[in-house]
From TrEMBL:
<dbReference type="InterPro" id="IPR029062">
    <property type="entry name" value="Class_I_gatase-like"/>
</dbReference>
<dbReference type="GO" id="GO:0003700">
    <property type="term" value="F:DNA-binding transcription factor activity"/>
</dbReference>
<dbReference type="Pfam" id="PF12833">
    <property type="entry name" value="HTH_18"/>
</dbReference>
<keyword id="KW-0805">Transcription regulation</keyword>
<protein>
    <submittedName>
        <fullName>Transcriptional regulator</fullName>
    </submittedName>
</protein>
<keyword id="KW-0804">Transcription</keyword>
<dbReference type="InterPro" id="IPR009057">
    <property type="entry name" value="Homeodomain-like_sf"/>
</dbReference>
<feature type="domain" description="HTH araC/xylS-type">
    <location>
        <begin position="231"/>
        <end position="329"/>
    </location>
</feature>
<dbReference type="InterPro" id="IPR002818">
    <property type="entry name" value="DJ-1/PfpI"/>
</dbReference>
<dbReference type="InterPro" id="IPR018060">
    <property type="entry name" value="HTH_AraC"/>
</dbReference>
<dbReference type="Pfam" id="PF01965">
    <property type="entry name" value="DJ-1_PfpI"/>
</dbReference>
<dbReference type="GO" id="GO:0043565">
    <property type="term" value="F:sequence-specific DNA binding"/>
</dbReference>
<dbReference type="InterPro" id="IPR052158">
    <property type="entry name" value="INH-QAR"/>
</dbReference>
Amino acid sequence: MDSLKTIACLIYPDVMSLDVTGPLQVFASANVERQRQGLPAYYRITVLAQTPGPVTTSAGFAIVADQALADTPPNSLDTLLIPGGIGETAQCANLKLLNWLADGEPHIRRLGSVCSGALILAAAGLLDGCKATTHWADIDTLRSRYPQVEVSADQLHTYDPQDLNGSAHLFTSAGVTAGIDLALALIEADLGRPMALAVARRLVMFLRRPGGQSQFSALLTPEPSRVPRLAALLEWIPHNLNADLSLETLAEQAHMSPRTLSRLFVQELGVGPGRYVEQVRVESARNLLGAGHVSISTVARLAGFGHPENLRRSFHKHLAVSPQEYAERFGARQLASH
C-alpha cells in the first residue's frame, strides 16, 4: 500500500515562483533527511494547474505542472498549497478553480495558502469566519474585499496543529518566505521537531519562526528617506532606548507638538509613537537574544524595558513567544534566565 503523503501546490499564470518552490523544497528536503537516516521518503510532491505542462511565472520562467486540477481527486491530496502572485486577481474570478476548491476542501486534510493566495481561498468562500493572514501589502485588500474573514495583519501563518489559535485544516501564511516557515511547521506536525530542525539547518535557516511572529522588523522598516519629516527622530530612537521615550520627550526631540508628532507617526508609519518605540525595543531585544552573550535581565535593561517582566509581556504581544523560548530557538547559545 502506498503510504506517501501527497503534497501539492497549485500554479497559474504569473504565480510567484518562490511561493511554489520554497515550500515544496522544504518537503523535498525532509525526504532527503529521512533517507540520510535510513528511512523511506514520507512525501510525494506534485504540481497542479488547470492543464498539465509549463506555466509561466511572474519571474518569466515556467514551472511544469504534473497534472490537471480537474483530474485530481481532492481526497488523494494530504496537503494542498495555494500560492500568491500577480496572477492572483485572475484566479479570484476563475469559477472553475473556486468551485473545485469549495467542493474539494472537506476532503483535503490540509488546505493552505502562501502570500496573496489567501485571496483565492477567500474568493472561494473558504475563509469566512476564519482567522487568516496574507502578505502585509494585501492585508487591506483581504480585509475590505472579504469582511467576513477575521484578518490577522501581523502574523507569519495561522497553521496550528492543536486548533487553539489557528487551524490544523485550513490556514494561511504571509509573504514569500513565510511559506517556508509554514512548511516547516507542517513537517514538525508530521515528523516531529527534530526533523523540522534538521531540515532548517540543511537549508541554512533559523530553526523555525513561530506562526504568531510579526511579519515586520521595526529597525528595517520604514527607511528614513521615505519619511523625511521623521527621519532624524527615527535614527535617534534606536540609540536611546534606555532613555525616557515618552510622547512628550519624542515631541521635544523632533521639535513638534505631541499632537502633531502623533498625527505624523500614524500618517507616515501606520502606528503611534508609543507602539513604534515598543517595536524598536522588541527588535533590539531580539538582536541581543540572538547574539546569546547576555542574560535576559540585561537584555531587558539594554533594550529599555527595565524589568524582564516588561520584556516578557512585549514578546508575547509581538512574537507570541517568551524571551527564553526565543533565545532557545534562535540564540547562538542558551541563555541564563537571569
